[in-house]
Amino acid sequence: MAAYDELQKQLIKDLLIESSEGLDRFDREMLALEKGQGTPDTANIIFRVIHTIKGTAGCLGLSKIESVAHVGENLLSLLRDGKLTVTQPLIGTLLAYADALRQMLRCLETQGNEGDADHSTLLAQLQALAEGKATAATAVKDVKTGSETPAQNWGLFDDEPVVAPATTVQAVHETSPADSVLTNTPSATSVPTVAVHATAPSAADSAIRVNVEQLDKLMNLVGELVLARNQIIQHSSATQEAGLIGASQRLNIITTELQESVMKTRMQPIGNVWAKFPRIVRDVAFELGKKVKLVMEGDKTELDRTIIEAIKDPLTHIVRNAIDHGIELPSVRVKEGKPEEGLIVLRAFHEGGQVNIEIMDDGRGINVSKVRQKAVEKGIVNSEQAGRLSDREVFNLIFLPGFSTADKVTNVSGRGVGMDVVKTNIEKIGGSVDILSEVGNGSTIKIKIPLTLAIIPALIVSSGGERFAIPQVSLLELVRLEGETAKRGIEMLYGTAVYRLRGQLLPLCYLNKQLEIGEGRDAGSASVVNIVVVQADGRQFGMIVDEINDTEEIVVKPLGKQLRGITCFAGATIMGDGRVALILDILGLAQRANMVNEVRDRALLDKTASDTRSTNRQTLLVFDASKGSRMAIPLSMVARLEEFPRSAVERSGLQEVVQYRGKILPLIRVADHVSGIQNTIQSQDPMQVVVYSEQNRSVGLVVGRINDIVEEAITVKRDATAGGILGSVVIQDKVTDLLDVSAVIRAADPSFFNQEVEQTVN
Amino acid sequence: MTESKQFCTFYLHDLFFGVEVLGVQEVIRYQEMTGVPLAPRMIEGLINLRGQIVTAIDLRRRLDLPARADGELPMNVVVRSDDGAVSLLVDEIGDVVETNDRDYEPPPETLTGVARELIRGVYKMKDRLLLILDTEKTVDVSTAKSRTPQQGS
User: A101, A220, A382, A590: which sits with the fewest CB atoms below 10 Å from its CB?
Assistant: First the structure.
């Protein structure tokens, strides 16, 4: 029930803000009307303001506001339809009416109820005006007698607006005294209004509406500032002048903060999109004769407004699908021993700079063998391949365009209509979709999308004498081959270059050849080969570039229409030196290099092969905590790997810290917190740091040396013998300790996890 | 009563061109450019115009004129198009000239090829002819591609 109260509170707050603006507008338009400056739209605007207030108040069960609004609405609808002439008393009464609404809204805000002011006099006046009765300043005729005359034309609806004969209106005009505006204001409303005015700033004052265009402009300017900042930092790194270095560091931090704040102004909670889901779920479920309960978690998770727009339709589609194909009929559910009411859970949360949205249902799940069978029938895979596909790959087949239109499959399998469109739309904004399902227990669709599209982290590479930016979202890893391996590492088969990446063949392409630019370094002669491993459409491939420069926050700018036909580029950006660099569109590039189709089958088969070998494979980061002590942690726990010069280390109390991306990053020396190893890395420069992030909080683990990233099937050979260690495993034929990251962090900073818990509670 | 119009003029090869002055955002010197791989041949590259990324079109190539001699740096005439600013690369900038409607004539029938498409009309000036370019058509490279197929860059 608490969630309901919370929602009600929020909705009332929205009503207050909206109404306050609406009523101000009402007054403005009213005055324009009085001065004879009204446009044909004016009356319409006024009507809509009141109509909205009435509607919202009605929804929230504020019957008094609703009924007062209703009476005025009748009058205004006549005005809008041009059936009423504007007169002084009319304007006066309507302004008083607006004040009455304001007064009630204020009571609602300050006292939590609609107040007990009596508005009957005012309402009678409004009614009378609507019915074309001449009203003097204070004299209010009996409402009933008024409704008898012209209302008989309608008969059926006594609360319906009534057409006033033009002659009567004319009479109103002539009999009304000029000062009726003032005298019309009923005293009952004016007194409490003044009284409440003196209180603290209201909800309506604490928020303002800003034109979206203005925000976009602000965002553009911040983009410019980020570029200028990048330029200054590049210059200041070449200088020794302390003042300039200090100033540019400050500029750096302020710019980052400004960028975040401006970004926040464009953020909207995902609840805005979700708000309509209860209704959709109810309607669809009703239509299909199903019972569905909808649970929404994390509706305050914020996203850039452009992204909110983009995910609206895909999400609706997925939810509809879940009810239609996932949730079973109540009778079936009972038979299966499930509660009669199906459950759909929408969950949103931030993780690693991305927003995760999950849509779960407890329906029948996807029948893997049926999908497999259908895939073979449709000729997407042959029966031998189909047999080797893992369940997860089978689920992903549903996203293929061919599957979407096949009604039969959607009926038997559970999912499918337009899922390819969902996937395309999500990928268009740099996101990814994944699907998990268990027959009988339901399905989960996981969506990952970036927080914003305007400023993105990217890796800058050079090829053929030009620089290109690769968005970090498509980036998987970087491989550098030196010396002998550079010569022999890349193998050719029928002109196609491949590289053995952890035992699997990774197809390669030369960026300069794909883009038909200058002579890059030839694989045969170069002493160093840089491979950027990227992912497009769920498939991996390697791009050979001349040089890997750096990661940078870049501002995405669109290309002119002359260049939009080139699918290899997603846009352009301005680099630190003021020159323009193109942003690669990995998907477009993959298509150009024929990677996508070719790799599709490969990736499926490769994965199957590895999946059958072992289901317990994990990607691990292997490092030396200090000399001779080899340790590993799951790569999924690592946010980034960084190097910090010793000079960057500062102290905050007893804690060693560094400034990192505009925040303070506490450093923990792993060797200090794992019992039984010698700390030999005290004076190492630069320090190797593994950045571990959770819930917006980061901590840097100082290690001796980063060795490798390996994918291994983990079987713990020996249980923990020392604090801070989970156990020992054999990796690459060497005994390696698994570091207990949370224990080490807890030992160094006991508050780290506590604060995190508090945050999640809030 | 004859109407007069102002044109921003420039030279290309040995021809004298003009675009309506109201459509010109600014004229700037040669800027360093970033080439765009796979782009149509007449796209010279991208320039950074105070944080705005502007596509530069080589007018010589656009108009099927012989290439500029090596070492000759073109000027940028930045024009406003429906799709934002676009830079036209020209040999040399002329004055802003005022023309008289009396001197205007549509392009001669014998004019063919891409020039026929892009040249809106001709003003007979005292000592030479001023060719008026249709900016929207000039920056619309897609029409050019279909007429003169490119071999790629």
Answer: A382
CB contacts of B80 in chain A (<8 Å) are none
ipTM of the assembly?
0.86
This prediction's pTM? 0.50
CA separation for the pair A31, A567 (Å, rounded): 55
- For chain A, domains (ranges, CATH) are 2-206 (1.20.120.160), 212-266 (1.10.287.560), 269-450 (3.30.565.10), 456-612 (2.40.50.180), 617-761 (2.40.50.180)
Q: Which of A580, A582, A583 to mutate to test the interface with B (most CBs of B within 10 A)?
A: A580
- Whether residue A344 contacts residue A319, with contact meaning beta carbons closer than 8 Å, is answered with yes
Chain-chain contact of A516 with B54 (C-beta, under 8 angstroms): no
Domains of chain B, earliest start first: 4-147 (2.40.50.180)
Q: State residue A86 phi and psi, 5-degree precision.
A: -75, 125
pLDDT by 10s per residue, chain B, length 153: 557 789 999 999 889 999 999 999 999 999 889 999 988 889 999 998 877 889 999 999 999 888 888 888 999 999 998 878 999 999 999 999 998 888 899 988 888 888 888 999 999 988 889 999 999 888 888 765 434 444 433
Burial-class residue A362 by CB neighbours within 10 Å (0-12, 13-18, 19+). Answer: buried
User: How many residues are there in chain A?
Assistant: 762
Say whether B53 and A569 touch across the interface (CB within 8 A). no
Nearest to B37 among A517, A572, A574 (CB): A517
A559 contacts B51? CB cut-off 8 A: no
Token pair, residue A125, equals 């006046």
Question: Taking Cα atoms as reference points, which of A3, A32, A25 lies closest to residue A274?
Answer: A3
Contact (CB, 8 A) for A573 and A470: no
A515 closest CB neighbour out of B38, B52, B139: B38
B37 and A223 in contact by Cβ < 8 A? no
Which residues, other chains included, contact A628 with Cβ-Cβ below 8 Å and sequence gap of 6+?
A: none
